[in-house]
Design goal:
4 strands
Length: about 180
């Protein structure tokens, strides 16, 4: 007479397949993080930090308060205080204040338009004066900047056009 033990089959061990799945998901997650952090050569990027003093644009007294505080902070920076420490203490940007106002590397056109235009004009390493943006008053420092090949080409064309216009004006004034 067959016993219950003899007819029962042992369950299959599928733990190795589970571990293969976990390892595969881990590899995919690492690849996503690596690719996401990579600077794309076809997009110009800027590494910037800021101190935001937010205000209600419709309230003149709040605007005046925010502007005055921003001017005081700019003076403190000029006197040698730490940008990082002032951003941690005073910035109203909850996402960046803990990091000393550091926005990291940001692609061209990805920021508030007022802010974006300004960060592409400010010289690297220089701290801006107080800048009014859509969110309030800001003090900005560009830490580094990389240009895409397309932007470098466009800047070269602009420079050549300016030189040509200047030469034409000089030639025109010499003829007179």
């Amino acid at each position: 007479m067959p016993s219950d033990v003899d007819t029962a089959t042992e369950p299959r061990d599928r733990t190795k397949w589970l571990w293969f799945g976990v390892a595969g998901l881990f590899c995919v997650a690492v690849a996503v993080f690596v690719l996401q952090g990579r600077v794309r050569p076809n997009v110009s990027t800027v590494h910037v930090r800021h101190i935001l003093i937010a205000c209600d644009k419709r309230d003149p007294s709040d605007r005046a308060r925010a502007h005055e505080l921003a001017k005081q902070l700019r003076q403190r920076l000029a006197d040698g205080e730490s940008f990082t420490e002032l951003a941690k203490q005073y910035s109203n940007d909850a996402l960046t204040s803990a990091n000393g106002g550091d926005l990291g590397y940001v692609g061209k056109g990805m920021l508030d338009p007022d802010f974006d235009v300004f960060v592409w004009k400010l010289p690297v390493g220089q701290i801006s004066d107080v800048v009014e943006t859509g969110r309030g008053y800001e003090i900005i420092e560009v830490l580094s900047r990389t240009f895409s090949k397309a932007d470098l080409y466009e800047m070269e064309l602009d420079q050549k056009a300016r030189e040509r216009l200047l030469n034409e004006r000089q030639a025109g004034s010499a003829d007179e």
